[in-house]
Amino acid sequence: MNKIKFKWLTVMSVILIVVLSCNTTSHEEKSLEKDQIKDTDPLPSWNDVSSKRNIITYVEAVTSRNSEDFIPVKDRIATFDNDGNLWSEQPLYFQLFFAIDRVKALAVDHPEWKNTQPFQAVLENDMAELAKQGEHGLITLVMATHAGKTTDEFDQDVKQWIKNAKHPQKNVSYDQLVYQPMLELLQYLRDNGFKTYIVSGGGVDFMRAFVTDIYGIPEEQILGSRIKTSFDYNNGAPVIHRLPELDFIDDKEGKPLNIQKIIGKKPVFSSGNSDGDLQMMQWTASNSYKSFMLYVHHTDSIREWSYDRNSHIGKLDKGLDQARRDGWTVIDMKSDWKIIYPFEK
Hints:
By secondary structure, this protein is α/β, with parallel strands linked by helices. The chain has helices spanning 3-39, 50-63, 94-106, 119-123, 127-132, 134-146, 151-164, 180-191, 204-208, 211-215, 254-263, 278-285, 318-326, 333-336; strands at 77-80, 195-203, 222-232, 239-248, 269-272, 292-299, 306-307, 329-332. Strands 1, 2, 3, 4, 5, 6, 7 and 8 form an eight-stranded mixed sheet that branches. Helix 3 packs across helix 6. The longest helix is centred in the first third of the chain and has 37 residues, at 3-39. The relative contact order is 0.14.
């Protein structure tokens, strides 16, 4: 063997050893990473209960390429109700508290409100009378406090309110009353290729003003009820005005309609807490892919609130019956969650 050939073989041998060593290291590192991911609890604020196990079993099944239930990433759509599902909703929807605070702030320019319902009830802190005003009264409050502004002005009003307002019973800011276990669930799904959406009966512009930072969900992935708007070129400084008229209510059958119109795909995972979410769950359950329906059942009267079938807010009656009949997963808040709010950690 000549010297040139010997040197060439020696060099190639060294390269081969280095490559094999690198490949082995890379493989070991990848295996270690997988083991570490597997050993890390993705839902640490949940007790080891059936709801948690059901979620993890489902996610592993639909994200494994070797599984007959595998779902391509492009079809991993997860939709979440907001009020009572991602944050608290008692004793009133947070957006209604915003409307009430706005009425009080604007009352100085509306002396007629002192003798006009439902404004009089708000100014006198008469919640019993306000409840008697029903849906019409609530819509009147919303139109008076949510319309007559540009979208930018309304956005600033909401941001300022959420920065300073406090819940009357919990005495913390409203943005602290989000559910830590659900924050973990949102992140767990995103870590596994799911695209998460909010599909709520709440006002879409109200939520978009601040919940993106809380949930990690972009504004364009937040769906909700909306009022009518109009475009104004405004001499080269365009604005969009909010009008005192409802455009769409994103509740009950409105949820699947809005999902189809805006997302354009049927969810494979949906989560809610009331009968207002039932049609969204039914729509998800009809997916040809393996689907997962998750209800939050409010059973903790000490740490949060306990309510379901007879509640004036977040009524869970028909949805609870269908969940039990069809084998959907139901979270028992009292027994399933170690903590409820992030500040309890």
